[in-house]
Automatic annotation (TrEMBL):
GO terms for molecular function: metal ion binding; metallopeptidase activity. One of its GO terms (biological process) is proteolysis. It comes from Tannerella forsythia (Bacteroides forsythus). Pfam families: FTP. Keywords: Hydrolase, Metal-binding, Metalloprotease, Protease, Zinc. This is FTP domain-containing protein. Residues 66-116 form the FTP domain.
Amino acid sequence: MKNKILSVISVWFIALYTINAQIVLQKQTERDGIVTSLRFRTDTVPVAMNKAKEILNSINKMQAADEWRLEKSSIDKQKTKHQYYLQYYKGIRVVYGTYALHGNDRGQLESAIGNFQKIDQVNTTAQLSESEALQHAMKHIGAELYKWQIPEEERWIKEYLNDTYYPQGEMVIVKDILQGSNQYRLAYKFDIYAHKPLSRYMVCICGCHRRENFG
């Protein structure tokens, strides 16, 4: 009985591999096996654009905590369809985990380009409050004056754009590149406008007070 079960499992895996080989025309992978680019067949075995999320879930080794969420979709003048997905881990957005999928005017998937962040385990309990993380970010930038600290600037953006320069921290998961490792950490991501000197920063403050500067 055990041998029969193993045989069925083996046949299922072979069938799955064959189906993937039939629909994929070209594939590019990184050294770690992460798929970064795919071109799909649109002649013999076309894949519908509405199956895009299922394809994303299958091309990389995802865990139960991993998830792709559709960020936006559009159709250009050539009737080409585009879908943009962001990666989430336990409901928290993963920095650099993105995929763009493109299809033709017949609703068939043509290509997928992006990157999947392979996360083993992350503590998703914040060690800093948002306000504490912002203070660390400002200390790291070291500007003399920030946009939200100028009443005229803050009044203008509220009146004309219904927005604020005051940074709102977004909880994200980011790779600890400062350590040169494959570890991922929970962090607050801030979009900070400095006035003196005039500059803009995208900064991630991790719970261990390390900083990832993206701008």
